[in-house]
Amino acid sequence: MADLGFFLKRLGRMDYGKLLDNVDIVSKRAERSKAYILWDMLRCGIRYNAGYMDYKIARMYALSPAQRRTVITRGINNRIVREMNDKAYWHCFDDKAQFNTRFAPWVDRAWLHADKNLTIDELGAFLGGQDAVFVKPLEGSSGVGVRKAVPADWADLDSFYRQLIAEAPAILEEAVIQHDDMSRLCPTSVNTVRFATLLGPRAQGIVYAFLRIGNGKVIDNVDCGGMAARVDLDSGVLKTVAADKQGNVFEVHPLTGTPIVGFQLPYFEEAKRMCLEAMRVVPQVKYVAWDVALTAKGPRFIEGNSFPSHAVPQFAAHYPDGIGILPEFRKYMDL
Fold first, then answer.
1. 31 and 130 co-located in one domain
2. Which of 99, 134, 193, 294 qualifies as a FRET site for 187, CA 20 to 30 Å off?
3. Are 212 and 220 in contact (CB under 8 A)?
4. Are 314 and 57 in contact (CB under 8 A)?
5. DSSP 3-state assignment of 265?
6. Closest listed residue to residue 54, CA positions, set 22, 16, 88
7. Tens digit of each residue's pLDDT (9 = 90 or more) over 214-242
8. C-alpha–C-alpha distance, residues 4 and 8, integer Å
9. Cβ–Cβ under 8 Å, residues 133 and 123
10. Is 81 inside a domain boundary?
Protein backbone atom coordinates (compact mmCIF):
# COMPACT_ATOMS: atom_id res chain seq x y z
CA MET A 1 0.00 0.00 0.00
CA ALA A 2 1.27 3.47 -0.89
CA ASP A 3 2.34 5.89 1.83
CA LEU A 4 0.39 9.10 1.21
CA GLY A 5 2.47 11.00 3.77
CA PHE A 6 5.66 10.11 1.90
CA PHE A 7 4.11 11.25 -1.37
CA LEU A 8 3.08 14.62 0.07
CA LYS A 9 6.55 15.19 1.56
CA ARG A 10 8.19 14.41 -1.76
CA LEU A 11 5.75 16.75 -3.51
CA GLY A 12 6.87 19.59 -1.28
CA ARG A 13 10.59 18.95 -1.85
CA MET A 14 10.49 18.12 -5.54
CA ASP A 15 12.79 19.75 -8.08
CA TYR A 16 10.10 20.81 -10.55
CA GLY A 17 12.61 21.82 -13.18
CA LYS A 18 14.03 18.29 -13.29
CA LEU A 19 10.51 16.89 -13.18
CA LEU A 20 9.57 18.76 -16.34
CA ASP A 21 12.85 17.78 -18.02
CA ASN A 22 12.03 14.13 -17.36
CA VAL A 23 8.46 14.58 -18.56
CA ASP A 24 9.89 15.81 -21.85
CA ILE A 25 12.30 12.85 -22.15
CA VAL A 26 9.66 10.24 -21.32
CA SER A 27 7.07 11.87 -23.58
CA LYS A 28 9.38 11.36 -26.54
CA ARG A 29 10.25 7.79 -25.58
CA ALA A 30 6.66 6.76 -24.91
CA GLU A 31 5.25 8.77 -27.83
CA ARG A 32 2.58 10.18 -25.54
CA SER A 33 1.70 13.79 -24.79
CA LYS A 34 3.48 15.63 -21.99
CA ALA A 35 0.13 16.20 -20.29
CA TYR A 36 -0.57 12.46 -20.21
CA ILE A 37 2.92 11.61 -18.93
CA LEU A 38 2.71 14.23 -16.17
CA TRP A 39 -0.71 12.94 -15.11
CA ASP A 40 0.52 9.31 -15.19
CA MET A 41 3.62 10.20 -13.17
CA LEU A 42 1.38 11.79 -10.57
CA ARG A 43 -0.82 8.71 -10.52
CA CYS A 44 2.21 6.41 -10.04
CA GLY A 45 3.43 8.70 -7.27
CA ILE A 46 0.16 8.33 -5.39
CA ARG A 47 -0.39 4.61 -6.01
CA TYR A 48 3.17 3.24 -5.91
CA ASN A 49 5.23 6.01 -4.23
CA ALA A 50 7.19 6.31 -7.48
CA GLY A 51 9.28 9.40 -8.17
CA TYR A 52 9.76 10.79 -11.65
CA MET A 53 13.15 9.03 -11.90
CA ASP A 54 11.50 5.74 -10.91
CA TYR A 55 8.94 6.31 -13.63
CA LYS A 56 11.65 6.92 -16.24
CA ILE A 57 14.20 4.26 -15.22
CA ALA A 58 11.66 1.47 -14.76
CA ARG A 59 9.74 2.60 -17.86
CA MET A 60 6.54 2.54 -15.86
CA TYR A 61 4.75 4.18 -18.76
CA ALA A 62 4.99 0.82 -20.57
CA LEU A 63 3.85 -1.33 -17.63
CA SER A 64 0.43 -2.61 -16.66
CA PRO A 65 -0.90 -1.94 -13.13
CA ALA A 66 0.09 -5.49 -12.12
CA GLN A 67 3.62 -4.97 -13.42
CA ARG A 68 3.90 -1.56 -11.78
CA ARG A 69 3.20 -3.18 -8.43
CA THR A 70 6.44 -5.19 -8.80
CA VAL A 71 8.76 -2.16 -9.08
CA ILE A 72 10.84 -1.19 -6.03
CA THR A 73 10.09 2.52 -6.05
CA ARG A 74 11.73 5.14 -3.89
CA GLY A 75 8.88 5.11 -1.40
CA ILE A 76 8.92 1.34 -1.03
CA ASN A 77 12.70 1.25 -0.65
CA ASN A 78 12.49 3.96 2.03
CA ARG A 79 9.90 1.89 3.86
CA ILE A 80 12.16 -1.18 3.85
CA VAL A 81 15.02 0.88 5.26
CA ARG A 82 12.74 2.45 7.87
CA GLU A 83 11.41 -0.92 9.04
CA MET A 84 14.63 -2.94 8.83
CA ASN A 85 17.45 -0.55 9.79
CA ASP A 86 17.85 1.04 13.21
CA LYS A 87 19.17 4.52 12.46
CA ALA A 88 21.25 4.48 15.65
CA TYR A 89 23.53 1.94 13.93
CA TRP A 90 23.81 3.50 10.46
CA HIS A 91 27.17 4.97 11.44
CA CYS A 92 28.66 1.45 11.39
CA PHE A 93 28.36 1.64 7.60
CA ASP A 94 28.15 5.34 6.78
CA ASP A 95 31.46 6.18 8.48
CA LYS A 96 34.05 4.53 6.22
CA ALA A 97 36.68 4.36 8.95
CA GLN A 98 34.26 2.55 11.25
CA PHE A 99 33.25 0.22 8.42
CA ASN A 100 36.86 -0.65 7.57
CA THR A 101 37.58 -1.36 11.23
CA ARG A 102 34.48 -3.43 11.91
CA PHE A 103 34.74 -5.47 8.71
CA ALA A 104 38.55 -5.57 8.60
CA PRO A 105 38.89 -9.31 7.76
CA TRP A 106 36.94 -8.77 4.55
CA VAL A 107 38.32 -5.30 3.66
CA ASP A 108 41.92 -6.57 3.84
CA ARG A 109 43.81 -3.52 2.57
CA ALA A 110 45.84 -0.67 3.99
CA TRP A 111 43.97 2.53 4.81
CA LEU A 112 44.47 5.74 6.73
CA HIS A 113 41.97 7.92 8.60
CA ALA A 114 42.75 11.48 7.56
CA ASP A 115 41.40 13.98 10.05
CA LYS A 116 42.73 17.30 11.39
CA ASN A 117 45.09 15.42 13.72
CA LEU A 118 46.90 13.62 10.90
CA THR A 119 50.58 14.60 10.66
CA ILE A 120 52.56 14.91 7.46
CA ASP A 121 54.93 12.24 8.73
CA GLU A 122 52.05 9.77 9.19
CA LEU A 123 50.83 10.56 5.68
CA GLY A 124 54.30 10.10 4.18
CA ALA A 125 54.74 6.76 5.96
CA PHE A 126 51.40 5.51 4.62
CA LEU A 127 52.10 6.61 1.04
CA GLY A 128 55.55 5.03 0.97
CA GLY A 129 55.51 2.15 -1.47
CA GLN A 130 51.96 2.78 -2.68
CA ASP A 131 51.37 2.76 -6.43
CA ALA A 132 47.96 4.40 -6.09
CA VAL A 133 45.46 5.33 -3.40
CA PHE A 134 41.84 6.39 -3.34
CA VAL A 135 40.84 9.45 -1.36
CA LYS A 136 37.24 9.26 -0.11
CA PRO A 137 35.07 11.51 2.04
CA LEU A 138 34.56 9.88 5.43
CA GLU A 139 30.83 9.81 4.70
CA GLY A 140 29.05 10.00 1.38
CA SER A 141 27.58 7.99 -1.45
CA SER A 142 27.27 7.72 -5.24
CA GLY A 143 31.01 8.19 -5.67
CA VAL A 144 30.78 11.91 -4.87
CA GLY A 145 34.16 13.32 -3.88
CA VAL A 146 36.10 10.12 -4.57
CA ARG A 147 39.37 10.56 -6.43
CA LYS A 148 42.37 8.47 -7.33
CA ALA A 149 45.89 9.67 -6.52
CA VAL A 150 49.22 8.35 -7.83
CA PRO A 151 52.84 9.10 -6.75
CA ALA A 152 53.03 12.10 -9.06
CA ASP A 153 50.18 13.66 -7.07
CA TRP A 154 52.07 13.44 -3.78
CA ALA A 155 55.57 14.20 -5.13
CA ASP A 156 55.07 17.53 -3.39
CA LEU A 157 54.02 15.94 -0.11
CA ASP A 158 53.43 19.23 1.67
CA SER A 159 50.97 20.40 -0.98
CA PHE A 160 49.20 17.00 -1.04
CA TYR A 161 48.98 17.09 2.77
CA ARG A 162 47.46 20.59 2.83
CA GLN A 163 44.84 19.58 0.26
CA LEU A 164 43.99 16.44 2.22
CA ILE A 165 43.58 18.33 5.48
CA ALA A 166 41.33 20.82 3.69
CA GLU A 167 39.14 17.87 2.61
CA ALA A 168 39.18 16.20 6.04
CA PRO A 169 37.64 14.12 7.41
CA ALA A 170 38.45 11.53 4.78
CA ILE A 171 40.14 8.18 4.36
CA LEU A 172 42.94 7.07 2.06
CA GLU A 173 42.82 3.49 0.87
CA GLU A 174 45.30 1.28 -0.89
CA ALA A 175 44.03 0.78 -4.44
CA VAL A 176 42.29 -2.54 -4.99
CA ILE A 177 43.60 -4.55 -7.95
CA GLN A 178 40.72 -6.43 -9.52
CA HIS A 179 40.88 -9.89 -11.07
CA ASP A 180 42.14 -9.97 -14.65
CA ASP A 181 38.76 -11.30 -15.78
CA MET A 182 37.07 -8.18 -14.40
CA SER A 183 39.53 -5.94 -16.21
CA ARG A 184 38.45 -7.57 -19.48
CA LEU A 185 35.10 -5.87 -19.00
CA CYS A 186 36.46 -2.44 -18.09
CA PRO A 187 40.04 -1.81 -16.97
CA THR A 188 39.62 1.84 -15.91
CA SER A 189 37.55 1.08 -12.80
CA VAL A 190 37.18 -1.63 -10.20
CA ASN A 191 33.91 -3.22 -11.31
CA THR A 192 32.06 -4.18 -8.14
CA VAL A 193 29.21 -6.54 -7.38
CA ARG A 194 26.34 -4.93 -5.50
CA PHE A 195 24.81 -7.57 -3.19
CA ALA A 196 21.70 -6.77 -1.15
CA THR A 197 21.20 -8.84 2.00
CA LEU A 198 18.09 -8.85 4.17
CA LEU A 199 17.52 -10.25 7.65
CA GLY A 200 13.78 -10.39 7.19
CA PRO A 201 11.02 -11.89 9.31
CA ARG A 202 10.22 -14.43 6.58
CA ALA A 203 13.73 -15.32 5.43
CA GLN A 204 17.34 -14.19 5.64
CA GLY A 205 19.85 -14.07 2.82
CA ILE A 206 20.81 -12.40 -0.47
CA VAL A 207 17.96 -10.71 -2.31
CA TYR A 208 19.85 -9.77 -5.47
CA ALA A 209 23.24 -9.17 -7.07
CA PHE A 210 24.13 -6.74 -9.84
CA LEU A 211 27.52 -6.11 -11.39
CA ARG A 212 28.33 -2.43 -11.70
CA ILE A 213 30.63 -1.75 -14.64
CA GLY A 214 32.59 1.40 -15.35
CA ASN A 215 32.50 3.19 -18.67
CA GLY A 216 35.86 4.94 -18.81
CA LYS A 217 35.98 6.66 -15.42
CA VAL A 218 37.86 5.46 -12.32
CA ILE A 219 34.62 4.48 -10.52
CA ASP A 220 31.79 2.23 -11.63
CA ASN A 221 28.87 4.00 -9.96
CA VAL A 222 25.79 4.45 -12.18
CA ASP A 223 25.47 8.03 -10.94
CA CYS A 224 28.88 8.70 -12.51
CA GLY A 225 28.21 7.20 -15.94
CA GLY A 226 28.59 3.50 -15.12
CA MET A 227 26.25 0.67 -16.05
CA ALA A 228 24.91 -2.46 -14.38
CA ALA A 229 23.89 -6.01 -15.31
CA ARG A 230 21.95 -8.51 -13.22
CA VAL A 231 23.82 -11.53 -11.87
CA ASP A 232 22.35 -15.01 -11.58
CA LEU A 233 22.65 -15.84 -7.88
CA ASP A 234 23.17 -19.55 -8.46
CA SER A 235 25.92 -19.38 -11.08
CA GLY A 236 27.53 -15.93 -10.88
CA VAL A 237 26.87 -15.40 -14.60
CA LEU A 238 25.57 -12.10 -15.98
CA LYS A 239 22.03 -12.91 -17.07
CA THR A 240 21.03 -9.59 -18.67
CA VAL A 241 22.38 -6.85 -20.84
CA ALA A 242 23.93 -3.89 -19.06
CA ALA A 243 22.01 -0.63 -18.71
CA ASP A 244 22.80 2.84 -17.46
CA LYS A 245 20.74 5.53 -15.79
CA GLN A 246 20.17 7.34 -19.07
CA GLY A 247 18.34 4.32 -20.51
CA ASN A 248 21.17 3.10 -22.75
CA VAL A 249 21.50 -0.67 -23.16
CA PHE A 250 24.76 -2.53 -23.84
CA GLU A 251 25.15 -6.09 -25.12
CA VAL A 252 28.93 -5.65 -25.25
CA HIS A 253 31.04 -3.16 -23.36
CA PRO A 254 31.43 -0.02 -25.52
CA LEU A 255 35.14 0.40 -24.68
CA THR A 256 36.44 -3.18 -24.59
CA GLY A 257 33.96 -5.05 -26.79
CA THR A 258 33.62 -7.76 -24.13
CA PRO A 259 30.22 -9.53 -24.30
CA ILE A 260 28.15 -8.89 -21.18
CA VAL A 261 25.43 -11.56 -21.21
CA GLY A 262 27.00 -14.86 -20.16
CA PHE A 263 30.06 -13.27 -18.52
CA GLN A 264 31.24 -15.42 -15.60
CA LEU A 265 32.26 -13.65 -12.40
CA PRO A 266 35.27 -15.12 -10.56
CA TYR A 267 35.03 -16.01 -6.84
CA PHE A 268 31.28 -15.52 -6.84
CA GLU A 269 30.53 -18.28 -4.33
CA GLU A 270 33.17 -16.87 -2.00
CA ALA A 271 31.65 -13.41 -2.38
CA LYS A 272 28.20 -14.73 -1.44
CA ARG A 273 29.56 -16.47 1.65
CA MET A 274 31.34 -13.29 2.68
CA CYS A 275 28.13 -11.25 2.49
CA LEU A 276 26.11 -13.90 4.31
CA GLU A 277 28.61 -13.84 7.17
CA ALA A 278 28.96 -10.07 7.28
CA MET A 279 25.20 -9.41 7.30
CA ARG A 280 25.06 -10.69 10.91
CA VAL A 281 27.86 -8.49 12.27
CA VAL A 282 25.50 -5.53 12.86
CA PRO A 283 22.10 -7.24 13.16
CA GLN A 284 20.37 -3.95 13.95
CA VAL A 285 20.90 -3.01 10.29
CA LYS A 286 19.03 -5.77 8.51
CA TYR A 287 18.96 -4.43 4.94
CA VAL A 288 22.44 -3.74 3.55
CA ALA A 289 23.90 -3.23 0.09
CA TRP A 290 27.48 -4.49 -0.07
CA ASP A 291 29.91 -3.38 -2.79
CA VAL A 292 32.32 -6.23 -3.43
CA ALA A 293 35.51 -6.19 -5.51
CA LEU A 294 36.64 -9.47 -7.04
CA THR A 295 40.43 -9.71 -6.88
CA ALA A 296 42.98 -12.38 -7.74
CA LYS A 297 42.97 -13.29 -4.03
CA GLY A 298 39.20 -13.45 -3.70
CA PRO A 299 36.38 -11.03 -2.82
CA ARG A 300 36.98 -7.85 -0.82
CA PHE A 301 34.54 -5.30 0.56
CA ILE A 302 34.74 -1.79 -0.84
CA GLU A 303 31.92 -0.56 1.39
CA GLY A 304 28.53 -1.35 2.88
CA ASN A 305 25.45 0.82 2.56
CA SER A 306 22.88 1.23 5.33
CA PHE A 307 20.51 3.02 2.91
CA PRO A 308 20.71 0.96 -0.29
CA SER A 309 20.02 2.80 -3.53
CA HIS A 310 17.00 1.50 -5.40
CA ALA A 311 18.13 2.79 -8.81
CA VAL A 312 20.07 -0.22 -10.11
CA PRO A 313 17.39 -2.81 -9.20
CA GLN A 314 14.86 -0.78 -11.24
CA PHE A 315 16.44 -0.68 -14.69
CA ALA A 316 13.79 -1.85 -17.12
CA ALA A 317 16.31 -3.62 -19.37
CA HIS A 318 16.86 -6.18 -16.60
CA TYR A 319 13.19 -7.20 -16.60
CA PRO A 320 12.12 -7.98 -20.18
CA ASP A 321 8.83 -9.47 -18.96
CA GLY A 322 8.00 -6.29 -17.05
CA ILE A 323 8.03 -8.04 -13.67
CA GLY A 324 10.34 -6.11 -11.35
CA ILE A 325 12.35 -7.19 -8.33
CA LEU A 326 9.80 -6.56 -5.59
CA PRO A 327 8.61 -10.23 -5.59
CA GLU A 328 12.14 -11.18 -4.49
CA PHE A 329 11.85 -8.85 -1.48
CA ARG A 330 8.45 -10.33 -0.60
CA LYS A 331 10.17 -13.66 0.02
CA TYR A 332 11.89 -11.96 2.99
CA MET A 333 9.26 -9.58 4.37
CA ASP A 334 5.70 -8.31 3.96
CA LEU A 335 5.37 -5.49 1.47
1. no
2. 99
3. yes
4. yes
5. coil
6. 22
7. 998 888 888 888 999 999 999 999 999 99
8. 6
9. no
10. no
